[in-house]
Every structure is written in structure tokens, then in C-alpha cells.
What we know:
The complex is a heterodimer of chains A (289) and B (160).
Chain A: E1 5-7, H1 12-21, E2 26-29, H2 35-40, E3 48-51, E4 61-65, E5 68-72, H3 77-81, H4 84-89, H5 91-98, H6 103-106, H7 111-117, H8 124-131, E6 134-139, E7 142-147, E8 152-154, E9 157-158, E10 165-171, E11 178-185, E12 196-205, E13 208-217, E14 224-225, H9 227-233, H10 240-253, H11 264-287
Parallel strand pairs in A: 1-3, 2-3
Antiparallel strand pairs in A: 4-5, 5-10, 6-7, 6-10, 8-9, 11-12, 12-13, 13-14
Chain B: E1 4-10, E2 13-19, H1 25-32, E3 51-54, E4 57-60, E5 73-75, H2 88-95, H3 105-118, H4 124-130, H5 142-159
Parallel strand pairs in B: 1-5
Antiparallel strand pairs in B: 1-2, 3-4, 3-5
Bound molecules: flavin-adenine dinucleotide and FE2/S2 (inorganic) cluster (FES) (2 copies).
Amino acid sequence: MNDVRYSAPSTLDEASKAMLAANGTGWILAGGTDLLVQMRSGMRKPGVIVDIKKIDEMMTVQDLGGGSYRIGAAVSGAVLGEHKALKKAWPGVIEAINLIGSKQVQGRASAGGNLCNASPAADSGPALVAAGAILAIHGPNGRREIPVEKLHSGPGRTTLAPGEILVSFTLPARPKGSSDAYLRLIPRTEMDIAVVGVGVNLTISGGKCTAARVGLGAVAPTVLLVEDAGKALVGSSLDDAAIEKAAAACRAACKPINDKRGTIEYRTKIAGVLLKRSTAIAIERAKGN
Amino acid sequence: MSKMHITTTINGEPTEFLCDPSQSLLDVLRDNLGLTGSKEGCGSGDCGACSITLDDRLVCSCLVLAPEAEGKKIETVEGLAQGEHLHPLQKKFVEFAALQCGICTPGFLVASKALLAKNPNPTETEVRFGLAGNLCRCTGYDKIIRAVMEVAAEMRGAAR
Ligand SMILES: Cc1cc2nc3c(=O)[nH]c(=O)nc-3n(C[C@H](O)[C@H](O)[C@H](O)COP(=O)(O)OP(=O)(O)OC[C@H]3O[C@@H](n4cnc5c(N)ncnc54)[C@H](O)[C@@H]3O)c2cc1C
Ligand code: FES
Ligand code: FES
């Protein structure tokens, strides 16, 4: 780790240039809770570290009205958890981000880093996929926007081109009667990696579900948008039969691995269980809105 | 290889140091500045023995790069006592025997202080979750949790 250079530019253009110039040896530093662990273990050997926390846009939360928020990719979980209006508008997204690590980790860890590290088990993924978050990406050729489910191309891999930086994610406006929830299963109650994670985002109007999106994590090489689960809920009165159909869609979408945290059979079964539980929470919350 | 010159504030004192760009803040505190209160238990964010606050935010100093300290305000366990006067948390840890080997203690003290600053009236569950990022292999945690609850009660009493 000896000839590393550190820079903390104040603009996206400078950061993007520094990353391009590093020619594959550049690593973005947000909260460092993945990157520094990876450097210590020898898994990453950066030539250049580009700290993005001096760039205003990456560190701010903007209220766009109607429950829509643009959130800088490098804002820490602790800061997001203390944002009362945001937490009320998007409880599922914020509970997912706040599940990342301990208080100490929360003080640094960002949702942008969680997404760009691209672990299939990352907690923010399913909740942001369910939310329909749109990512703003800044690169050498300017800006582009993609839905969050298009960011990952495999475990640890993203679709970001050289020099591209995730700037922010936007949570869309939602009608009255909407809410969301995220649940994960871990072998203990704190400080562990999800065996399965499920995010549900739905809208209820006149006793019927009028919109629903389901995100599923830790059961495939990337976080999944389970369109069939959303379809099973929309148009229903969110009765047991509709929810069982959505759970079946989640089980069918699973392509998990066997590891020390859970077998294929276990993960598949739990995906359905968590869909039911997080849907129940989202329904309760939506009724209050 | 060129060192970086960093200007920061540690426990209220303006401080300057030279560091390697990829050195952790924990290494600088301990090796360059002689502030050996913060401990390295794991170096990977799991144990909390290296806990400090950075601009009033609780963090693991093993997961902060030293150059990130530029212009920031750092508090370490060395800043808890005022001269000869121990902080109420330090006194209560001694009184309740909330430590054995003591390796985890500086981290628990810094994390507990940060917890009480945000939540002066925590439930036991809140204290247990709030300190879940600090590992102790000796005490079994109960005495630590009771010490923190007791200090919270005393500090509320004093504020009344
Ligand atoms: C003790 C501990 C517990 C943890 N527990 C959990 C957990 O429960 N759940 C969970 O999901 N994760 C967990 N993590 C992993 C980690 O904390 C999270 O993934 C965190 O959100 C990473 O964010 P960061 O800001 O620290 O990212 P960094 O480490 O700064 O960056 C992560 C990666 O993304 C890249 N990157 C960061 N920001 C950008 C950007 N804006 N544009 C492009 N690339 C970028 C970096 O180059 C790096 O490769 C834990 C880590 C530790 C140390
Ligand atoms: S040494 Fe930093 S968390 Fe263990
Ligand atoms: S007292 Fe020994 S680790 Fe806590």
C-alpha cells in the first residue's frame, strides 16, 4: 500500500478525471467501510484514492416535494436516519440503510457505497429497487440516469464505465396511501450479512392495491426486481391469496447459493416468508398515510 | 514517497501531523501522536476498540484514512477526563467493575458517551443495540450496560 495517492476534489469533473487518469488503479472513497477493509486484506491495491465527500452534491439530501427526495450517494446512514421527514416518507428505504453495521459503521457507511460495492446481499439494494430509485451517474461524457436495478452486473461488478461516479439516487413521489418496508433474515440480531432481504413498496387506494414493487436480495448474483410479485399484489385487496401468490413469485425468482449462512432450500423458503411479513408491515404503514 | 501534512483538532488541541496517504487514522493516533488509548482489536470495523468521534460522529478510526482528518474535529478517549477528574462514565466503569482486561474499554467509553449525547434517556435495549458495535470478550456485557444506564440516570438527575 505504499505509493498510494489520496485526493479529495470538490467537483465531480475533477473526481471523474482523476479516476480516468488512474487508469484502472483508482478507487472512489465514500465511507470506506468496504474499501478500507478490502485494502487491509490485500483484495484492493489502489494507486489513487479519490475521496468524494468534499463534493456538495454527493453530501446533500434534497426534498423535491410530494414525498420525492434526491439523496447524495455519499451521505452516511447516520445522517439519513436522523432526517425525520425522509424517514417518515420512506421508512423502508431508511430502515434498510440503517441496518448496515453498527453505530460506528453507520457514522460513515453510505447507500452509494453499499450499491457500488455490489454485494448481492447488500441491505440497501432490495429497498431501493422496491422504491423505484433512479440513479444519477456522472462520467467523462456527462450525466446519465438509470433505474437502480440496472446498476449491478454480477457479484462485486457494476455497469459503471471508467471514470463514472454514482452521484445521487432519487426516490419518486408517491400518492397518498403508499408506504414501504424492508426485512432481512440474519442468524443474529445485529452485525451480520443478510441470508435473504426483501423490500416491498405499495400503494393502497379504495381498499385495493394500485401499485406494488418488490426487491429481493442475497438469493441471486445481483439484487432482483421481482415483477411477478408486484403484479400478484396489484389489483387485489391484499388478501391472503394475493400475498401467497406474491410469495410464490419470490420463491420462483430465487437463484441462491449454498453457504454457511443458508442452504438453497432455506433461502428460497425464507424469501416467501419475508415477502409476507414485509408486505404486512408496508400495508400497516400505508394505512396510516 | 511523499508524506501528507494534515492539520486537525484532537480533543480540543490544534494538531498537525505527517502521514502516508493510506495510513489509517488509528495508526496515526497511536504511532505518530502517542495517543494509545484507542486500541486495534480487529482493523476491520468489527470490534469498536478504535472508536473515536469525527466531527461529533462515532466512527471506527481503523476505517478512516488519516488524510480524511484534515480540518476535522476529533475526540478520543484521552479527551474524556478533565485533568485528574474522570468522566462520570469512567468512574462508573471502575465502580461497577465493567472491565477486566480493559482492551475494549476505551471504545466502550467513547461509544457510550456518543450514545448518551444523542439519547440521554435510553432503554436497556437501546443501550444494547447502541453498543452492538463494541465487542468485549471478558465481561459478558451486563456490567457495562448497567454502568451506562446508571450514568444516564445520574446525568439526568444532575441536569434537573
Ligand atoms: C462491521 C461492518 C458491518 C457491516 N454490515 C453490513 C450490513 O449489515 N449490511 C450491508 O449491506 N453492508 C454491511 N457492511 C458493508 C459496508 O458497510 C456497506 O456496504 C456500506 O454501505 C459501504 O458504504 P461506504 O460509503 O463505506 O463505501 P466505501 O467503502 O467508501 O465504497 C464501497 C465501494 O464502492 C465504491 N464507491 C463508493 N461510492 C461510490 C460512488 N458514489 N460512485 C462509484 N463508486 C463508489 C468504492 O470505490 C468501493 O469500491 C458492513 C461493514 C462493516 C465493516
Ligand atoms: S480495530 Fe477498529 S473496529 Fe476493531
Ligand atoms: S474487558 Fe477484556 S475485552 Fe472487554
